[in-house]
TrEMBL record:
Belongs to the small heat shock protein (HSP20) family. Gene3D superfamilies: 2.60.40.790. PANTHER family: PTHR47062, SMALL HEAT SHOCK PROTEIN IBPA (PTHR47062:SF1). It holds the Pfam family HSP20. This is Heat-shock protein IbpA. Keywords: Stress response. It comes from Pseudomonas asuensis. The keyword Ion transport does not apply. Residues 135-156 are annotated as: Disordered. CDD domains: ACD_IbpA-B_like. Residues 30-142 form the SHSP domain.
Length: 156
């Protein structure tokens, strides 16, 4: 099946959305990515979001969160076996290493993270700076004519 498609028609009527093409391409490449660990992306109001990752059996020291160039990365390294070796009769709680990446939209900031009841909660907030918010542009009331205005001191 051919998954190549052109986004050129979308870009004819837009300016500055080149990153979306990269986003779609990277999504298609990562289509077969692992689903471990399971996670939710939640929206809490207009500008608040939360990523909830199932982190059963992990501690704060096992997890690493990093934001670099608009990408939030959550990593877990494989835990070392403890000195008092345990023999599992059945091991249903996976404790393998993982790496999840989330591309953050413009002005999305990570506000905090907490591990509670086996769930890693990452709180995100959209904080748009004043200079990026929409503003009204006043239309100058002068009409434009082809006549050149008279300069001071000149008689028309």
């Amino acid at each position: 099946m051919n998954t190549a498609f052109s986004l050129a028609p979308l870009f004819r009527h837009s300016v500055g959305f080149d990153r979306f093409n990269d986003l779609f391409e990277s999504t298609l490449r990562n289509e077969s990515s692992s689903t471990y660990p399971p996670y939710n992306v939640e929206k809490h109001g207009n500008d608040r979001y939360r990523i909830v990752i199932a982190a059963a059996g992990l501690t704060e020291g096992d997890l690493e969160l990093e934001v670099e160039r608009g990408v939030l990365t959550v990593k877990s390294s494989r835990r070392e076996k403890s000195a008092d070796s345990v023999t599992y009769l059945h091991q249903g709680i996976a404790q393998r290493a993982f790496k999840l990446s989330f591309r953050l939209a413009d002005y999305i900031e990570v506000k905090g993270a907490g591990l509670q009841n086996g769930l890693l909660n990452i709180d995100l907030v959209r904080e748009v700076p004043e200079e990026a918010k929409p503003k009204r542009i006043a239309i100058n009331g002068q009409s434009r004519t082809d006549e050149k205005p008279a300069l001071e001191g000149q008689v028309a």
